[in-house]
């Protein structure tokens, strides 16, 4: 987070709940529950966690493109100093077009099958930057070359189905870059790609970041991408941030037992030794366990964990953890061994 | 093509699968072939896990479909217990289908939504014989427990289960016929990170306990390496390298294998490695490059590679590679 550097994105105490009707009763799904985070301009940050931990809902809340069943109950989203929750529809659509872009997992879903590639890249350029004719066409070609698509002249006339998965994902990248955004959120951008293509794509994002200084926010469960790309990590569990730290701390000395469990469960080519799985499955967000939501799966849970929610404890100026193990009072009373 | 002494459970000899590409409205005309498999030799020995890695479009899944008799090979033999499958009569085939089972990638589509869990598990056995209700119940309970599930879920439908539980049901079904060989086609890629390792552990435990052979298909090299004793690397319908897992990772010989290993993501930010970023993408199997099929992307391609198609030959002991160098 760096003390002097100015954050481009600050989320304060954001709460997004879904209300769903499951046939018998109304349920509240606590997808994002009091999340605060700050992302410095030009940084590369990862939000990690299992599916259903609220990381994607967090991204959708920032863009304010939540489905109708969800609502933001409280909190602030400061982007470039402005509160996005105070913006109206037109202002928000301008921000989505020009300042914050998103890359989703499946390019076949995010591209429209009935429009040409050129048409889809040109859309934001036409409406938001007011480019026309020759300038529009040239800018589209430039963007295609930026994402390393050869022969842009003929490619821009093609439809998404005429391209391979890796190429489609690069097209999505070109659309994301079209208005020089300040922040790109990438939600599992390479899950559908083969490893060699995945590396090409990550290298491409890295190069583009070097060139434009865009801030990258990865939303992923792949610790390989985090190790490869990111400088800071935010770990989410059941709608809450449980740890935030520089990437080195996460890999060398994970604080939260959940972070440690995630690392222990990841496969690595360099180390084929026995891995240990995380017990159980992620909790139901409409029926969360009391106290610390992770305690039923935690290897080190204590008496207090099932009763009271742990506070967020600062371990160093740029590192926090939400776990009773790090509370000095609790350590004394529960006689915690060194961790 | 693994260890020589053991009798292979399944052996593939020069398997080819060409899908005809047709054109024309009134009378179809074959204009060419998609060469999904172009001469594959592979032996799967008893009690052994062989991994099969490669990009999408390399023919891994076609190979699985041929072993499961869902496709007929265009050429080549599929040998089971010393006999060519093509000579099998009805009862031989029934036995073959019992002995060779599969677990697929997506447990949401591989389990029938209309059947209860117990019916799903008993279905393969019902094909070969009659079972009473009591027997179905007992059988389902037994295999559910072996797959790490509570026997009580035998009466529910798959939509009530989570992804991990469904994959366990699929595994329970695969072992319910006393199978000796299980084809695992990306068994964990549809699952969440935490559940993924649970399923891998279950598969490895069952492999040990029941002495199963697995053919493990995957694109995640780290996961495949974690489970397999041998790994075969496929590229455009051919095996380009085959050796023991440790050997493959420490001493990859084929440039494609080297690229795959170098492209896999690090498990620690400090892990700096030499990166071979392959140019381009896998070629269209309709139009396979001349000579070595990897040469357009190969960083070490030389003159000969444009003309000579290398064959898979032993380079070191227990290490086969198909490269001109």
Question: Which features would summarize this protein structure in a list?
Answer:
heterodimer, A: 339 residues, alpha/beta, Rossmann fold, eight-stranded mixed sheet, 33% helix, globular, B: 325 residues, four-stranded antiparallel sheet, 9 helices, 25% strand
What does this structure look like?
- The complex is a heterodimer of chains A (about 350) and B (about 325).
- With about 350 residues, chain A is α/β, with parallel strands linked by helices.
- Chain A contains 12 helices and 12 strands.
- Chain A folds into 2 domains: about 5-100 and about 190-280, P-loop containing nucleotide triphosphate hydrolases (Rossmann fold); about 110-180, no CATH class.
- The longest helix of chain A has 18 residues, at about 195-210.
- The mean pLDDT of chain A is about 90.
- Chain B is an alpha/beta fold and about 325 residues long.
- Chain B has helices at about 60-65, 90-100, 115-130, 135-145, 165-175, 195-210, 220-225, 245-250, 255-265, and strands spanning about 10-25, 30-45, 50-55, 75-80, 85, 100-105, 180-185, 215-220, 230-235, 240-245, 315, 320.
- Chain B has an 8-stranded mixed β-sheet with strand order 6-7-8-3-9-10-12-11, with helices on both faces. Chain B has a 4-stranded antiparallel β-sheet with strand order 2-1-4-5, with helices on one face.
- In chain B, strand 11 and strand 12 form a beta hairpin.
- In chain B, helix 3 (about 115-130) crosses helix 4.
- The longest helix of chain B has 18 residues, at about 195-210.
- Chain B is globular and about 70 Å long.
- The interface of A and B includes residues 51, 52, 278 and 282 of A.
């Amino acid at each position: 987070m760096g003390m002097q550097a100015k954050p481009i994105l600050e989320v304060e105490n954001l709460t997004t709940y879904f209300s769903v009707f499951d046939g018998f009763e109304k349920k509240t799904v606590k997808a994002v529950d009091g999340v605060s985070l700050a992302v410095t301009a030009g940084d590369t940050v990862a939000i990690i966690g299992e599916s259903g931990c609220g990381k994607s809902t967090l991204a959708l809340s920032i863009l304010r493109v939540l489905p109708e069943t969800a609502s933001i109950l409280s909190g602030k989203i400061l982007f470039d100093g402005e509160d996005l929750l105070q913006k109206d529809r037109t202002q928000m659509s301008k921000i989505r077009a020009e300042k914050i872009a998103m890359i989703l997992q499946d390019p076949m879903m995010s591209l429209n099958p009935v429009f040409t590639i050129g048409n889809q890249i040109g859309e934001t350029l036409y409406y938001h930057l007011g480019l026309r004719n020759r300038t529009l066409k040239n800018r589209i070609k430039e963007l295609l070359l930026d994402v390393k698509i050869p022969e842009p002249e003929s490619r821009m006339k093609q439809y998404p189905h005429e391209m391979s998965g890796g190429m489609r994902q690069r097209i999505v990248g070109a659309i994301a870059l079209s208005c020089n955004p300040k922040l790109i959120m990438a939600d599992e951008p390479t899950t559908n790609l083969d490893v060699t293509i995945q590396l090409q794509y990550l290298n491409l994002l890295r190069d583009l970041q070097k060139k434009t200084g865009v801030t990258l926010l990865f939303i992923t469960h792949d610790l390989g991408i985090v190790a490869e790309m990111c400088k800071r990590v935010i770990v989410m569990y059941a709608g809450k941030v449980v740890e935030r730290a520089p990437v080195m701390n996460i890999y060398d000395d994970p604080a939260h037992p959940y972070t440690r469990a995630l690392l222990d469960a990841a496969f690595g080519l360099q180390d084929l030794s026995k891995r240990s799985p995380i017990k159980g499955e992620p909790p139901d967000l409409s029926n969360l366990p009391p106290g610390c939501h992770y305690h039923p799966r935690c290897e080190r849970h204590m008496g207090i964990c099932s009763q009271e929610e742990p506070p967020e404890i600062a371990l160093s100026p740029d590192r926090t953890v939400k776990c009773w193990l790090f509370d000095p009072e609790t350590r004394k009373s529960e006689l915690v061994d060194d961790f | 093509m693994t260890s020589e002494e053991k009798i292979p459970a399944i052996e593939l000899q020069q398997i080819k699968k060409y899908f005809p590409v047709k054109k024309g409205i009134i009378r179809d005309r074959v204009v060419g072939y998609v060469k999904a498999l172009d001469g594959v030799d592979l032996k799967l020995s008893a009690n052994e896990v062989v991994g099969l890695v490669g990009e999408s479009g390399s023919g891994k899944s076609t190979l699985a479909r041929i072993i499961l008799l869902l496709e007929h090979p265009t050429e080549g033999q599929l040998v089971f217990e010393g006999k060519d499958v093509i000579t099998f009569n009805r009862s031989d085939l029934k036995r073959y289908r019992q002995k060779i089972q599969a677990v697929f990638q997506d447990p949401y589509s591989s389990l029938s939504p209309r059947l209860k869990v117990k019916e799903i598990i008993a279905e393969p056995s019902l094909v070969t014989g009659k079972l009473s209700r009591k027997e179905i119940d007992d059988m389902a309970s037994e295999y559910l427990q072996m797959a790490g599930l509570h026997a009580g879920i035998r009466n529910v439908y798959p939509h009530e289960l989570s992804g991990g539980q469904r994959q366990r049901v699929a595994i329970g079904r695969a072992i319910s016929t006393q199978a000796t060989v299980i084809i695992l086609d990306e068994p964990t890629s549809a699952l969440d990170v935490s559940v993924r390792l649970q399923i891998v552990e279950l598969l490895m435990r069952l492999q040990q306990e029941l002495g199963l052979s697995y053919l493990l298909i995957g694109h995640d090299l780290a996961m495949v390496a974690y489970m397999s004793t041998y790994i075969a690397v496929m590229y455009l319908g051919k095996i380009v390298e085959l050796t023991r897992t440790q050997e493959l990772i420490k001493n990859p010989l084929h440039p494609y294998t080297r690229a795959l290993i170098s492209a896999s993501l690090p498990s620690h930010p400090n892990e700096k490695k030499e990166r071979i970023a392959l140019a381009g993408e896998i070629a269209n199997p309709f139009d396979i490059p001349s000579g070595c099929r990897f040469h357009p992307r190969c960083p070490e391609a030389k003159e000969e590679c444009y003309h000579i198609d290398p064959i898979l030959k032993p380079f070191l002991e227990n290490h086969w590679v198909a490269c001109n160098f």
